Amino acid sequence: MNAVTPSGFRDVLSEEARVREAITRAVADLFASRGYVPIETPTLEVMDVLRAGGRVPATPFKFFDSRGDLLAMRPDVTLQIARMCATRLAGVPGPLRFRYTQRVFREAETENQVQARELTQCGVECIGEVGPAADAEIVALFAEALRLAGATQFVLAMATVGVLRALLERSGAAEPWKAAVLDAYHGSDFVALDRLCDAAMGRAVEEEAVDAGAAAPAYTEAIRQLARIRGAQDAIDAVRALVTPLGCVADLDDFQATYDLLGEAGLADSVLVDFSVASSFNYYTGLVFEACSPYLGSPLGSGGRYDRMIGSFGADRPAAGFAFSLEQAMAAASAEADATAASGRPLRIAVPKGSLNTEAIACLEEAGLDVTGLANPGRALVISNPGVDYIIVRPSDAPVFVALGAADCGICGKDSLLEVGAAVEELVDLRFGGCRFVVAESAGTSAAIEERYRKLGSIRIATKYPSITRAHFARTGTQVEIVYLHGNIELAPITGMAERIVDITATGTTLRENNLEIVEEVLASTARFFANGCALRTDERIVALARVLAENAPKHAYAPIAGASNPAQPTLS
Ligand SMILES: Nc1ncnc2c1ncn2[C@@H]1O[C@H](COP(=O)(O)OP(=O)(O)OP(=O)(O)O)[C@@H](O)[C@H]1O
Ligand SMILES: O=P(O)(O)OC[C@H]1O[C@H](OP(=O)(O)OP(=O)(O)O)[C@H](O)[C@@H]1O
Q1: C-beta 525 within 6 A of ligand 2
Q2: Which of 484, 510, 525, 561 to mutate to test the pocket of ligand 2 (most atoms within 8 A of CB)?
Q3: C-alpha distances in angstroms, 273 versus 161, 265, 412?
Q4: Ligand 1 center to residue 395 CA distance, Å?
Q5: What are the chain's domains?
Q6: What pLDDT score was predicted for residue 559?
Q7: Nearest 5 degrees, angle CA 14-CA 17-CA 21?
Q8: Any keyword Amino-acid biosynthesis (predicted)?
Q9: What is the pTM of this model?
Q10: Across-strand partners of 45?
Q11: What was the ipTM of the complex prediction?
């Protein structure tokens, strides 16, 4: 027997347990001193109840009990407290202030889940209070609790979702376009956001775009700009200047008042107004915030106002709260203790080797970075120049390095970002490395493949990109079995191992020389500059680099091969 703990779960030995106990006690005392009373929620929740609250946070562990109910281990406490307020505490006059320290459980979402699957969340929920004073109370308490837990150098990135919602509502845009904009915000894909806005304004875009309907250009432009506004008071002023002429001030006055109160509480230096933060949430109704440490690749915690969540379980009740991970706060504290000062730390950029390498280096050089030694690194994997460390990676590994905080930012193809599915902020389309993903088959085999699909109900697809392939055929409604290969994918139909392939084509030479024909388009890809969300919010060099790269990007060619048919419908039925 292998007597180990399950992956993502661990023992806590006494030395650490003592520290955890001291911190949780101190934090609980702080919350109690502000009138928050303890509350406990069950470890298991009925899955439908979690779903009813809107977005289910993370991926919960799920199982059926002996009665056939689908249960989930709590991935979060907020939804449970919302349920409790709407049911057990319905009619109890507010305001109610609850505090908790509870374990939450999250199933691994990707292969690269090195994060713990059991976390200790410390948090509060304040139910029945509204307005800037209530919002500021929550944010200030969050900051105080993090400090007590030993994390002192965090940035509190905050925004309000009301402005984006108002812009979307008044834009006159078609619903699918609005949904796509929200998706782009939620997925931190600001390249997709640009593209949606460009298409809505009638500018040429390389890919087929979601129809924006009668979207008014001024609103579309504001929606695009909003995501990139960050700073201090100047950022709020910029948002106001942007949205006032459009009648979309929404809850910006309250946001300003909250910001002012936080300034009075001595938090001005910790607060970053950042409207891209709205990307992380979809159940918040007003203020949203997250705390990022310059030393960690994922946030310490987050929170916001969710005035409609309780209403999804019963009567509406305004509410706001936050939670942070005890483990993350302790990790930030220990990183702070042995840091050789993050501010002096070189910017860590993941640079792809292979076919994107030369142009990636050219872009970085053009942006004013010292790329000495990067083109010919020999066997060196890290090239250190003044102020910058280049981490040389396989392109498909670049998103992993950045998402896990081993690099601050990086470059790779859009295809790698899609395939890995890592949570990164996609900032700039660098416009080189153009290629298309296509479904292809051996010439003259299409009738036989259709007959096979009719008889067997599925076809075999060979690819190096299983996620992209799965998503594509799910969209087209075609049943496929995926044969995962590492290279020379074209061999699969030639040898009869699979009927079709999903692969990259650039010049079209490989397809031609192997007598393969394109059946349909999957997607077009170019190189992207992207960043870790915490690094982006704590290191201004990334914003500056993104700006210069975006200015220079139009100089680079977008050059996928032309001429393939692009059937919108699945070819098999
Ligand atoms: N003709 C092409 N063939 C392959 N990739 C291309 C081509 N044109 C552009 N690209 C882009 O270059 C990226 C890197 O390709 P490259 O061949 O260097 O790496 P790879 O060996 O496929 O990647 P990895 O080693 O990470 O699996 C692709 O992900 C794609 O975005
Ligand atoms: O249209 P083309 O210009 O001919 O380019 C397409 C080829 O390039 C890529 O292969 P790569 O060289 O990366 O090798 P791989 O097959 O090992 O992935 C891709 O997989 C195609 O085979």
Answers
A1: no
A2: 510
A3: 12, 16, 29
A4: 7
A5: 14-162+246-338 (3.30.930.10), 346-434+526-555 (3.40.190.10), 435-524 (3.40.190.10)
A6: 53
A7: 135
A8: yes
A9: 0.93
A10: 72
A11: 0.95
